[in-house]
Prior knowledge:
Helix content is 62%, strand content 0%. By secondary structure, it is mainly α. The protein has one domain: NADH:ubiquinone/plastoquinone oxidoreductase, chain 3 (Methane Monooxygenase Hydroxylase, Chain G, domain 1, Up-down Bundle). Core subunit of the mitochondrial membrane respiratory chain NADH dehydrogenase (Complex I) which catalyzes electron transfer from NADH through the respiratory chain, using ubiquinone as an electron acceptor. Essential for the catalytic activity of complex I.
Amino acid sequence: MNLIITILFISITLSVILAVVSFWLPQMNPDAEKLSPYECGFDPLGSARLPFSIRFFLVAILFLLFDLEIALLLPLPWGDQLFNPVGTLLWASAVLVLLTLGLVYEWTQGGLEWAE
Length: 116
């Protein structure tokens, strides 16, 4: 118990010392170049707050969803060694059918079109 308290004390002390030193050490000398929104040397041509298309986020979420689906279905070949391999196959098929129906719905609604 004494060793755990000692290690905890050393860790907390070291963390506090490093946090305090990181605030004291850097030199804060802001000039006009550092305070400008672009450090590449070009003047801004337009607003930096242009909205993104919601279609970009939709395609990105669909990509993540199907990537996650592959990761979930990866251990499926080992599922035939369970007591009820038919149940495993039915659940995996249900997931695939549900995702396929969702993809078909998005496709028919035009959610995957880049240009309108």
